[in-house]
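Replying to the earlier thread about multi-chain prediction with a worked example.

Input:
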Amino acid sequence: MSYARSTQFNRRSSGSWGRNQNTTRFASPVKLGPVTHTVLVALMITVLGLIYLTQATRATSYDYEAQKIDSKIADLNNQKTDLQVENARLTALENVQNSSVARNMTQPSQTDYVGE
Amino acid sequence: MQLDLKKGSRARTLAILTLVIMAIFIVRLFYLQIIRHDYYVAQANNEQLKQLIIPAKRGEIYAMDDGTPVPLVLNQAVYTAFADPKIVDEPQKMIDLIHRVAGGNARPNLDRLLGLKDSRYQILATKVTRQQAEMMKKENLRGLGFQEESQRVYPEGKLAAQILGFVNNEGKGQYGLEDAMNARLTGKDGLLQSVTDISNVPLTIGNKNINIPPQNGENVVMTLDRNVQAYTEKALADGLKKSGATNGSVLVMDPQTGRVLSMANFPTYNPSEYNKVQNADAFNNATISAPYEPGSDIKTITMTTGVDKGAVGPESTYNNTDYITVDDATITNATKGQTGNITFQHALNYSLNTGFVTVAERLGDGKSITLAARNTMYDYFYNKLHLGQLTGIELANEQAGTIIPPSDPQGNAVRYSNMAFGQGLDVTMLQVGAAFSAVINGGTYHTPSIIAGTMNDDGDAFTPAASKGSVANAIKATTSDTMRKMIHDARSAFYAGKDKPGYYIGGKTGTSQTIENGHYVDNQTVGTYLGFGGESSAASGPKYVIMVQVSGKNMNLQGGRDAMPIFTDISNWLLSYMKLQPKG
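Result:
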């Protein structure tokens, strides 16, 4: 099994480098042309756009959920108010006085007071 | 990469053309996005950004029931059922449905309304309840819609109608508490600004969303006691029936705090049907908005002034000749024959005008109602006991009345001789009730109030209101003790048997002449009765003050005959209701 060297080293003597300078540099064997660059950028923009759209759509779907819940809360509040009104009507003095319980009440013949 | 296009080649032409087209796009986009930016943003906002008003809930109104708040005015969602006749395709089915479900709330001539095909909006029924609206919605009729609104509901019906007032079609409080406390009851509407979808569902996208929640109106709790109010209204109606009087009012107060327990007025009305009232007088709360000459009830105030200044006492005497002359005016007694050297207690028992003109004279030099005497009377009537001025009760349309000061040319001796027995001044029942409370409660003037506090939004936590203030020693405590006994004796002299035994009840009759076209008339008098009640123990003090007034056009009504029985009825009931124990 043989391994091909993937890194090239330029020798110091081949350039006009100073004494203490790093003379080794990475040089990728894959060369990307301008079209590839453009396509890659376009792809990145597309992906980012899709991510944004996904998030925005998800947020909007929450809005619909929230709207449904708000609607339900409003309905329940209305029901609660209706019940409060009904309760107040049923316990109104006139209703209480006209109830069968009240009609069957009698005046006490004598009242005894407990001393203070 | 380097493109090497030959001059005049098709590729070069295409490249140039592409560049030109791109340039056009760029210029157009620059114009649309940069130069016309604001215009298109505004257009987009117009279409997408919606502002929804979130209505604030109007505050509810409560009364007390043996110390527990109970609702007198609540809100309820009701619906207006409407149709778009242009798109209604089953008119007969819709008419049947509206009649079947909405019943009496349906508009007449529904077939005619639905036949108006040029109209896009016709109201078919109003004040439809939520359940009724749900039933109609289930039928899924094309062109039928519902509009929600809030309406005031009155579980106790007519109870305390003049105190509550009502809310008109524009949502503004009219008369009573609704009017006086409109700002506090109304609250502040909220605002929801948001980008919406086509169904007006608010979406969180966009950066101009605003959500300001509404501030609901305050839930107000009145000092009024529901049971006392109901009994007072019934007693007043029964009393008026017996006397034949057409108008009447009753005020019940707690003399130890100035809190109003009841204000009853007749005739009355149903606030949920205020639009059916023919005579607007029914809206008025006469106890605060109808100043009148109080008549002999005021003798208790004159006597208080005399006692407090040390000018007279209950056993002081004067010579009663059944008439007395002040400058050019001769004043006579309504009850004649009690002549001779009599006490002021006797004068109070028989309500003798001459006795109280004499008290006024003794506040000066003893012979005439001097300026010093008039100044003293004015000081007690107006400054100390607040007659003839607004009490500041939290109800609409309170009237101040009039007490003419001695500095006014009309504030002469004759005027003040009349004021001594309750003529020549205009005051309201509430003013008299508050002043009388100070006379019999030990001498403290409590500013009358009808607000006990507020309830939270859920209606389950009560916060008491701060006291409106009081003036201690408006009169001396010893004077108050003397007056309490005098007024008790005055009632006992004629009506002792009317009261439940073992309690300490006092009262004073009043029969006032009325003025028509600037002159006193003989065929029309107003009957009043002003009194207090409580346990006999002096330490516990009076527990209630009741003032009754009855009147009618061209009717001679008397305090003792027509107003006093109403007082007695309410007083005897209150003794039981307040669980006061008899002594002895």
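The first helix of chain A runs from residue 34 to 90.

Feel free to reuse this layout for your own posts.
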